[in-house]
Structures are given as structure tokens and as C-alpha cells.
DNA sequence: TTGCGCCAAATAATCGATTTTTACTTGACC
DNA sequence: GGTCAAGTAAAAATCGATTATTTGGCGCAA
């Protein structure tokens, strides 16, 4: 019992920490995971790291190649578009269900989580993405779907969204994208949702998801060009 | 290189075999998994078994309880209804997408897989569920959704369906359910799908899924009654 | 010079044993 | 008679080391 947390297993802690590093973009998509570095860094045995990484592979955040190790999951543009399409279909469906079935408590939660999101700056003074914003953003989108009455459906949506977040750090450059007003997008989604405007809210959410991907694809293509140039 | 297969890792083999035993119902929902038995039975080390079981937990087929081991995932009736609802929503959506987007090759695949299913007896002469039928059934449902153009969406649907299959063996008793004509249900789904009747096919698939769950719930409640009696 | 195959270092996979935690049993105390 | 607690047995988690596989480099031959 050396650390602050004593109730979880080591594998769980390592899983959580690596997951965090994946989702913050500290570990870049495509880069190989050196298990030995984790062994030293976390002061645990290889078995523990293996279990953590295996679980992350199950989540779709890490790619496992038999006999060849693990790497941060890297998507081709085609796969990214596929993921986006699946997310749009599933998230909009879950949102529609929420709007149909959601209770007043759910409405309140949506308003609350949007308020928190709206009042959390996206960037820190240093110009990097604010971790609090990431959490608030995640919570907002989760809350939107939490009225659908199916934890399974919600879980699937959350899992897919996490995969998209792998590229979040790449959107950092796009945070200055002046063709978008992300705060406004969130506000629109929140308001239409609470107003129980199913079609409107669904359309707004779809736009929101697709715009992020579009920006990402644009960024990836620029990067590819400058690489070949 | 002692076994017949030499190209996969041991953990993968053990994963496949345990998964098979889970889906055939040989390992009953709720029963604890004795890792040591697997160690002896498969002649591998504990690490290998652990990795396999951890992956199965990620698939939702096994429940992992920290410090308390693993058990075959067991669902309450409430959870089973939730799972069914999520399956209906996602599978019908994928089917609708397939009907909208599917190519002629997909149509052909649907017809082919239905033909194979229709000509595979559900029970062996002994009265047990035929493994070939299980495979054909799985293939048929997968093929139905394979025209949707999103491997992600298809993957999610397949994963959820696998969870339902944990209770397949319990349906064995229900195979004689004379209120249903399962072959007819499959034929209807296949025909409406190929006819591109979106609403009809979706409704037929929904019925098919919900009937299986309803039978399962009936069975579970009977079992609960006879247990308390 | 180029291509093929062999050797060595690095990395992944697996193993057997140790440590830690939980579950059960037994016995004493209330 | 019932409850709680200490002790014991079982099982899970973790570790350190061994074995197998891949990767990259080197030499040899065409």
C-alpha cells in the first residue's frame, strides 16, 4: 500500500493511466507501445502491463499484432470515416430515444452538464487543450444519451466515442478553426434537446460529429502532403 | 509446434476454445471460471489463461471481479431486456442501412446464407442443438447486416449478439416451442430483405429477436418459480 | 553489384513460483 | 444458542526468469 489508491488492482491502475495517456494524445496513434518502458515507468511486472494493454486492445484503443507487439490504434481515413458514420448512426439514435423517453431529471442533467461545459475554457493560458474541458465535453455527450434508457446502447456509444478521442490532440491545431463556433454548436444541441425537438437536435448532433471528423481529415491530408513534399 | 495449429499464439487458441465453450453453453452463465482447471485442461500457463479470460471479459462474455476472479457473464432479466432493446435498435438500423445501400452481391450472400440455414437441421438426431445450425444461424444474421457498409456498426451488432448467445443453450428446451416457426421467421426476413422492403424486413427482424428473448424470460421465470417451490 | 540465406540482438510470449487477498472453518465468548 | 473473531485453506494477482519469434545486419555466392 504505497500509493494513494489502495482498493484497485495494479493492472487496473496501469490500465487507467495508459488509457489516459492514450486519450490525451501523449501516446500518438500508430506509435509502438514499448511494454518495457511501462514496466520501468510504473514499477510493475510485465504481466500487469500486458493485461492492461490487452484490455485496451479490446477497447479498440490499441492494436495488437500477434508476435509483433502493440501499437496505439491508428486509423486510415477510410476507417475514420467508417467510425464517424457508425457514431452518427448510433449516437443520433440514442439521442432520439433520450428525447422520446428522457425524464425531467435527464433534462436537468443535460442543462447542468452543458452549463459546466460552457463555462470551462477549451484552452489553458498556455494554449494547450484544457483537461477539464475534455472531461466536461465527454460528460456532456454522455449525458445527452443518458436518457435513452439502455445502458448497453449508451456503453456502445461511449466506446466508439473514445476511439475518436485518440485523435483529439490532432484537433488541437484545429481548435483555432475560425470556421467553427464549437461553443455555439454545443449550445444548439443542448437547447434543441431540452426543447424535445428530435429532428433538430439529431441534425445538430450529426453536424457536430461530422464537422470534427471533416476537420481531422483535412488536417491528415495536409500532413500527408507536407510529408511527401 | 506440437498441436495441429502452429500459426497462432497460445493465448489466442485458449481464447477461441473458451469462447466456444461459453457460446455453446457448456459453461453456464453465472458459474465461476476456475482458471486452474483451464491451466490443466489446456496444458498452458496461468498467464495465458488470464489473458484469454481478460479478453473475454472485454467482449462482455465474462464478468471480471477484481480480487475475486471471473465468472460466466450472467444477466438479470432487466439486463437481458436492455440487451435485447439495444440489439433491436442497432440490428434493425444496420439492416435498414443494408437494404438502402446493399449491392447485388450482398443480396446474393443473403440468399445463399439463408439457403444454407434453411437446409441445416436445428437439432441433431440426439435432440441436441446442432453446432452447424448455430454457425449457419450466426452467418445468416451477420450477412443480413453486412451490406450496411460500416464494419464498425456490424462489429458492434455482432458483439451484442454474441452476448445473447450465452443463453442459447437455455433456448434448447425452447426449441420445441410450438408457438413459433423459426424457419419461417428466417424465410420471411430473408425474402423481405431481398425484396428491399425496409419496413417489413425491419419489423420481421425485430419480432425474431424479441420472440427469442421473450421465450428466454418465460423460461427463466419458470426456473425461478420451481426453485422457490 | 545484387540477391539470398544465415546469424545475432531485440522483443514478444510463456512459464513456474511467490505474494497478497479472499473465503471458509473452527472455536471461544457473549 | 447465536455471533464474532482468529486461523487456515484456497484462489487471485504479481513477479522474475526462460523460451520462442521476429527483425535487421552481415557474409557469401551468382
TrEMBL record, chains A, B:
CDD domains (alphabetical): WHTH_GntR
GO MF assignments: DNA binding; DNA-binding transcription factor activity
Signal peptide segment: none
Presence of the UniProt keyword Transcription regulation in the record: yes
Keyword Amino-acid biosynthesis annotated: no
InterPro entries (alphabetical): GntR_C, TF_FadR/GntR_C, Tscrpt_reg_HTH_GntR, WH-like_DNA-bd_sf, WH_DNA-bd_sf
Keywords: DNA-binding, Transcription, Transcription regulation
Residues in HTH gntR-type domain copies: 8-75
Pfam annotation, one family: FCD
Protein name: GntR family transcriptional regulator
Native source organism of the sequence: Nocardioides currus
Lineage: Bacteria, Bacillati, Actinomycetota, Actinomycetes, Propionibacteriales
Amino acid at each position: 500500500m504505497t500509493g494513494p489508491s489502495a482498493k484497485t488492482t495494479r493492472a487496473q491502475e496501469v490500465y487507467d493511466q495508459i488509457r489516459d495517456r492514450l486519450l490525451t494524445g501523449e501516446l500518438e496513434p500508430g506509435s509502438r507501445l514499448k511494454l518495457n518502458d511501462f514496466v520501468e515507468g510504473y514499477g510493475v511486472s510485465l504481466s500487469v502491463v500486458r493485461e492492461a494493454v490487452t484490455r485496451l486492445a479490446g477497447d479498440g484503443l490499441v492494436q495488437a499484432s500477434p508476435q509483433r507487439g502493440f501499437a496505439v490504434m491508428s486509423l486510415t481515413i477510410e476507417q475514420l470515416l467508417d467510425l464517424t458514420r457508425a457514431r452518427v448512426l448510433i449516437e443520433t439514435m440514442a439521442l432520439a430515444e433520450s428525447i422520446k423517453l428522457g425524464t425531467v431529471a435527464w433534462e436537468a442533467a443535460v442543462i447542468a452538464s452543458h452549463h459546466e461545459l460552457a463555462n470551462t475554457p477549451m484552452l489553458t493560458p498556455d494554449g494547450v487543450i484544457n483537461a477539464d474541458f475534455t472531461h466536461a465535453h465527454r460528460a456532456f455527450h454522455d449525458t445527452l444519451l443518458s436518457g435513452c434508457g439502455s445502458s448497453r446502447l449508451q456503453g456502445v456509444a461511449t466506446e466508439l466515442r473514445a476511439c475518436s478521442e485518440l485523435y483529439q490532440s490532432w484537433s488541437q491545431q484545429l481548435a483555432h478553426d475560425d470556421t467553427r463556433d464549437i461553443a455555439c454548436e454545443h449550445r444548439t444541441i443542448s437547447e434543441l434537446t431540452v426543447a424535445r425537438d428530435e429532428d433538430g437536435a439529431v441534425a445538430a448532433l450529426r453536424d457536430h460529429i461530422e464537422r470534427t471528423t471533416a476537420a481531422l481529415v483535412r488536417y491528415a491530408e495536409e500532413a500527408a502532403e507536407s510529408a511527401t513534399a
